[in-house]
Design goal:
Helices cover about 35% and strands about 20% of the residues. It has about 450 residues and is of the alpha+beta class. Among the domains are: about 10-160, Adenine-n6-DNA-methyltransferase TaqI, Chain A, domain 2 (Alpha-Beta Complex); about 220-370, Adenine-n6-DNA-methyltransferase TaqI, Chain A, domain 2, CATH 3.90.220.20. The strands form eight sheets. The chain has a four-stranded antiparallel beta sheet. The chain has a four-stranded antiparallel beta sheet with strand order 15-22-19-20.
């Protein structure tokens, strides 16, 4: 154990709390719906991110629950048994809203004897030191068990009562600020997604290049069908033409639905066929600048350009439509942006068939109508949109870094608090004295 500041001492949970074991009950008397005479029971799954959540409950007859097994405000609910080492030891404080809930046998409660003890222990159970202790003692053949004796023997640093109050208050304030930062950071991805769609809408409608068009005296946009600007639009082989048994560990790449993202080719999932099989399916071969689009209409249109840096040739699979454009008339990136916008999504969604997995047919894709600007304006739209997306990507990269730092900041604050660096060792109203009461 590390050295403590003057006046601090090592204590255990048993010095501050009473431990209460959870409710045991007959499995055939557990219910999934509330009813008269049944008590809602919290389990380890109801402890999430340091909070108690009250969904996915079981309900047991009142006779199984002793008075002490009802939660009280200030209790610390702890998961004591689980097949997952990540779950065992999870803890969350109970509030007044939880006082009519009981807790199951795979949980225990640490019931602090004072409000000061409750505040101190609530904070300590969020620390990396607590997590390290759990992982050092919670073991089992198939179920990891955090035994009552190990909970009771949990060592924690304990300052004098006055310092404890001051540290708890200050730490709560600092952690509330980091929580607000996390909430603000959590709002950024939805905002970024809406901004990305706004860029695509502006690209498709012409508002992105309104100023450019005024200066360039560009011709008006014309209504066209996709089939009229394409050299080819085709689906991949289906049925017996390409079976799972045709796949090999290497060879010619097969582009599948899993590879088509929203304006992004996803390289992770790789499937191959042999060169001989590719020779039989040569007409499905893909080329750089081809546009790939999923036939399924999900929350967003999945369309992207086929990448030019794949190490092998490739074909598309069924339901992975390929569009090969006349690039003198239509820029592939412009069309990808047009396909990916919400306007197209709404059109395809309305035209889609299939109740569980709505999809469009190849003929519907060929007949898709859109407003096509002159090729010079298409290229200007692509330039402006890509510049806006690059700025957005830099923002998301900064968000990713900041989001990864927030939990580390919490742990840094907790570590600092529990080594006595958030409050002075001595204060005028209460000098630190070794052996002060709990």
């Amino acid at each position: 154990m590390s050295e403590l500041p003057r006046g601090w001492r090592w204590a255990s949970i048993c010095d501050l709390c009473d431990l209460v074991r959870g409710v045991t009950y007959a499995g055939n008397e557990a219910h999934t719906q509330p009813a008269d005479g049944l008590i809602p029971l919290l389990r380890a799954t109801n402890i999430q991110s340091g909070r108690i959540v009250t969904h996915d409950l079981v309900y047991v007859p009142r006779r199984y629950v002793a008075p002490r097994q009802y939660l009280r405000s200030g209790d610390l609910l702890i998961a004591t048994s689980s097949g997952s080492r990540d779950v065992v030891g999870k803890a969350a404080p109970a509030g007044s809203a939880h006082e009519h809930y009981a807790f199951g046998a795979f949980c225990s409660v640490a019931r602090p004897r004072t409000a000061e003890a409750a505040a101190w222990l609530r904070l300590f159970l969020r620390s990396a030191a607590y997590r390290a202790y759990v992982e050092s003692v919670a073991f089992g053949a198939s179920i990891n068990n955090f035994r009552s004796t190990d909970i009771g023997n949990l060592p924690l640093p304990l300052p004098p009562p006055g310092d404890r109050r001051r540290i708890s208050t200050r730490l709560d304030s600092l952690l509330a600020r980091t929580a607000r930062v996390r909430d603000e950071l959590a709002a950024i991805p939805p905002l970024a997604s809406r901004y990305r769609q706004a860029i695509l809408t502006a690209a498709a409608s012409g508002s992105l290049t309104r100023a450019w068009r005024a200066k360039a005296a560009s011709p008006v946009w014309r209504r066209t069908r996709l089939v009229d600007v394409a050299q080819a639009i085709f689906d991949g082989p289906f049925g017996s033409n390409l079976k799972s048994s045709d796949y090999t560990s290497c060879g010619v790449r097969v582009v599948r639905l899993e590879n088509i993202g929203h304006l992004r080719f996803l390289h992770d999932r790789q499937t191959f066929i042999s060169a001989d099989k590719h020779a039989a399916l040569i007409r499905y071969s893909l080329r750089p600048h081809d546009i790939l689009i999923s036939s399924f209409v999900n929350e967003e249109i999945r369309a992207c350009l086929y990448p030019s840096d794949l190490e092998t040739p490739a074909i598309n699979k069924a339901d992975c439509f390929c569009i090969r454009l006349d690039e003198q008339v239509c820029d592939p990136k412009f069309l990808a942006f047009r396909l990916a916008c919400r306007t197209t999504h709404s059109l395809f969604r309305a035209a889609a068939h299939g109740a569980t997995r709505p999809r469009i047919r190849l003929g519907q894709l060929r007949a898709f109508e859109f407003d096509l600007p002159p090729i010079d304006e298409q290229r200007e739209i692509v330039r402006l949109a890509e510049g806006a997306f690059a700025r957005l990507d830099r923002l998301i990269a900064s968000w990713t870094r900041a989001s990864s730092l927030a939990p580390r900041l919490d742990q840094a604050l907790l570590a600092k608090a529990f080594r006595g660096a958030l409050a002075p060792e001595d204060t005028p109203d209460e000098p630190a004295v070794a052996g002060s009461g709990v």
